[in-house]
Structures are given as structure tokens and as C-alpha cells.
Specification:
Blueprint: H1 4-45, H2 59-80, H3 92-116, H4 119-144
Helix pairs in contact: 1-2, 1-3, 1-4, 2-3, 3-4
């Protein structure tokens, strides 16, 4: 029995160490996607509007911003984290991948809203943000605990 104890301690130590690194990467992914979402919202609202529904930004202006700014930044993030695409759902990095997908969902809904000004798209934006908040809460719980 005493011969197994050191092995168990090494394995537990390795798992905690690996989890910490995974958490660092997942938190970095969260920060990057949060920045992208914030920038997309700002680009859609413009500087003068307090709410998206008050935006004077046109769909063409927003689409231009998407091509010029969002698409290259999102491509960089996807490239940066491409090694983690097939990671286990047990890893916090999996949650980071979910955040990357939800960022695209958010920006797609934002693009649809800017084109149509349909309030249904606002509801979709809220639903995506609720999923992002849930994912963040899970990440926080997994990485602080």
C-alpha cells in the first residue's frame, strides 16, 4: 500500500498542474472572445448610441468593419487555438472553444440585426449572451475550485 502512495501523489499533482495550464488557456480564450464581442457591439452601436436600437450605423458600415477588423481577428484566434479543436470536453479549454463558437453566433446575429433591424435578432443576441454567461460561470467554477 505504501508503494502506491507516491505514485498517486505524482498523478494528482500532474492533474492539478495540467488543469491550471488548461485554465490559463481557457481564461485567455474567454478574454479574447470578450474583447471581440465588445468591439463588435461598439462597431454596431457607434459612439453616439446608448443602445443598439438607437444606432445610426448602416449595415454596409458594419459589414465593412466585419471584413476589415473582426474577420482577421477571429481568424487569428481560431489559428492560435487550432491545436485544441479536438480536446476533451472535460478540459476547461473545451469551454474556450464553446466561447469561440458563441462569439461567431453573436456576431452573426448582430450582422442580421444590422441588415434587418428586426427585434427578433435582439432576442437572439440576448440568448447568445446568456449562453456565454453560463459558459463563463462554468469556467470560473471549474478553474477556481
Amino acid at each position: 500500500m505504501t508503494k502506491l502512495t507516491p505514485l498517486v501523489l505524482v498523478l494528482c499533482s500532474f492533474s492539478v498542474s495540467a488543469m491550471t495550464n488548461d485554465c490559463k488557456i481557457a481564461v485567455q480564450m474567454f478574454n479574447e472572445t470578450g474583447t471581440l464581442i465588445s468591439q463588435a457591439t461598439e462597431a454596431a452601436k457607434g459612439k453616439s448610441a446608448a443602445k443598439l436600437s438607437q444606432s445610426k450605423i448602416t449595415a454596409q458600415q458594419f459589414n465593412s468593419w466585419l471584413q476589415r477588423s473582426f474577420s482577421p481577428r477571429m481568424s487569428q484566434a481560431l489559428d492560435k487555438y487550432s491545436n485544441y479543436q479536438s480536446i476533451s470536453s472535460e478540459s476547461p479549454i473545451f469551454l474556450g472553444n464553446v466561447l469561440l463558437l458563441e462569439t461567431n453566433n453573436y456576431v452573426d446575429a448582430l450582422k442580421n440585426y444590422m441588415s434587418s433591424r428586426d427585434d427578433q435578432q435582439i432576442q437572439i443576441l440576448k440568448e447568445v449572451m446568456a449562453r456565454i454567461n453560463t459558459t463563463y460561470s462554468t469556467l470560473k467554477k471549474d478553474c477556481e475550485g
